[in-house]
Specification:
Elements: E1 3-7, H1 15-29, E2 36-38, H2 60-68, E3 71-77, H3 85-93, E4 104-110, H4 118-130, E5 134-135, E6 140-142, H5 158-179
Parallel strand pairs: 1-2, 1-3, 3-4, 4-5, 4-6
The protein binds flavin mononucleotide (FMN).
Length: 184
Amino acid sequence: MRIALLSGTNRPGSNTRKVVKHLEAVYRAAGVDAPVLDLVDLPPTLFAPEAYAEHPAAFTPFADTFLRADGVHVVVPEYNGGAPGVLKYFIDMLKYPESFARKPVAFTGLSAGIWGAFRPVEHLESLFINLGSYVYPERVFLPGIATHLEEDGSLSNPVSIKRLQTQASGFVDFAARLKKPVEA
Ligand SMILES: Cc1cc2nc3c(=O)[nH]c(=O)nc-3n(C[C@H](O)[C@H](O)[C@H](O)COP(=O)(O)O)c2cc1C
């Protein structure tokens, strides 16, 4: 079982990446392969207008990691009431439809403010449904993200830690059931 973790911003030192790091450990502890797609690592050439016609070779590992994952867990911060533009651009650069069709996807949102990225999560869910993905219904929202984090970047809030644990284990089960059709 392979669950790719998509860190939904390219802001260096982002809190999103800290939540992804936590989830990476949760998945690995459950014996799940959990490659991280960190948008901060995207090749600059991907942002040239020509990339729509021909993706740079350096983007191939990103596209393949997404494509080959049994499920994708997206961690998205709230930027101006939506998702970071780079996350939508990344989605737009992936192979369609094979990257998305029947792909299990889960969402965790975080923000500085009180909404916990509720709007970007809802928007991304409708976007992925439109692309033919299977959206895992249990979302986790982390509003006031600074109150969830220690100085070393680790998560400190026991309620949030429990919610992320429950979400991750439920998502693994969800993705596994979709991978192997249940026998009649
Ligand atoms: C461009 C930008 C826009 C933001 N807009 C909002 C916002 O609309 N609502 C909010 O609660 N926080 C907003 N924030 C704060 C982020 O939610 C906060 O930085 C949080 O740590 C998650 O983002 P990060 O992964 O970049 O750290 C914004 C941050 C940036 C960089």
